[in-house]
Amino acid sequence: MSFPAREGRGTAPVNLSRLAGNAVRLLGIAFLGCILSLALYQVWQLEPRWSAIVVVAVTAVAISMCLVRFFSDFLLVASLFCLPIASFVKFLWPEGYSVEENVAVAWSGLNNIGVIDFVLVGLYLSWFYRVFIVRKKTPSRPFNTLDVFVLWFIVANITATIGSVDPRLGLGATTYFLKYALLYFYLSQHFEERHLPWLLAAFGLTIGIEALLGAYQFATGKLVGLAVDKGLGSSETLNTTADLAAVPGQGNLHRASGTLIEPHALGAFLEMLLPFCGVLFLTPRLRPALRALSLIAAGCAATTIVFTLSRGAYLGAGVSMALGVVLILALWGERQVVPALAALGLLGALILPFTAHFLYERLTQHIDTFDARVPVYTAALQVFGDYPLFGIGPGSWIFVYPRYDQDWLVLDWFSNLIHSDVMLTAVETGIFGLVPYVGMLLTGAWRLLNIARRRRDLAGRLALAAFLGMIAYEISNQADPMIHEPSVNLLLWIFLSLSNALPRLPQGAGAILMGPTGPRSRLLTAPAIAARRAAE
Fold this sequence. Notes:
The protein has 536 residues and is an all-alpha fold. It has helices at residues 16-39, 48-66, 68-81, 99-107, 115-133, 145-161, 167-190, 196-220, 226-231, 263-281, 288-308, 311-332, 337-364, 374-386, 397-404, 413-416, 421-454, 458-477, 486-501, 526-535; strands at 2-3, 14-15, 90-91, 112-113. Strands 1-2 form a two-stranded antiparallel ribbon. The protein is globular and about 80 Å long.
């Protein structure tokens, strides 16, 4: 409905429906602002720096909504670059726990606030805006088996929380996994070919940061508690060697932890990224500069893994890289891997006299530390036998274990953890949670391997690298529990997202990263070939 304007004030009609719509929109904005202010009332109880961070983050999200047409892509790329700082989080502590228990609670999957949380909120708000405000059609993909396992795993954690030792811990652990599942669904839906260079740039930057900081920590013993200070410690932990950074019998060595919570986590993190460097280096027609950068990144990652002094990371990196060589030969028949291996073997022979004694001591000394885990495994099997269906509840193991420790061998909190992600999931969530967790890993790995079998372009090669990264992740998880480390967990869910996103990319995806090889190159289109001939 509209009415003509009064004389002398123009001839444009007054549209009442438009005015009513604008009024409703403004009232809705005011209403949502009130809800947001009420929801954030606890922010002002935090330390001043964290209150300021939350306010800045909320403001950034608001600005991003104004630039939503292209800002959603920026946020997607930002989620990839969160890898080196994902462990800088503020844990939401439940009341009634001592300082030592707080550390154990944090390692059991406690809910936290970090940069990735604000990026995730911005991603979903921008998605909501595109779908419901501007009515923009977004491509959809079919619901698959991996999606079912992811949702099942979240439901299993919620179910196991009911009747657990402390439902607050179960709720925190469930929320911890939920935000990564949300990121998985978003990346699976929106990751496109244009994001491939940013993915590789994020991985390369992450390796560079961890390598520089890890070398400094190994050489000086300083900043080893950097992530601990930002999350679950205090400023006193910044330049002191934490217990987890001490090596039994080798107290003069300082283990690198990078920007992660502890050295084993850094080793697992880098061994998951290392296959990308190797696969890219062996990619035919890759630009020479990128090939050189891949080789440098591989050397930095491998050296930093050595600095972590993590035997699980040594084993995981070795097995995954050896398997990668076999798969490259078996799937693609690319024999250029043989001279590359010969060159690496020669380089290893040259540096072996300087590293042999160091590696031998680390691999052979204090093997008896694994004996202390046997009572923990025994107790875990007993707990699983008592609670086989739904477990004892997420985050509850560290408080249930003393009741089952028949040998009265209560060690430090880290040694009391179950050093196996599969066994820990079985104990805390039962069979109902174990089935989707194992199914999630197996399905994601199988999908990545199938992509590598069908494609030899950059998408197929990244799928192979992600598959090898998941293999390395699972090997390390049988030595040290990495399922609740934020950075390692974020990388795992990115790999699972790639198993859904990479098959959608067109054949020849990533051609921008390839160098020209002449008119016969499959990566050059006919117009490009004609333009080149005209220029010549």
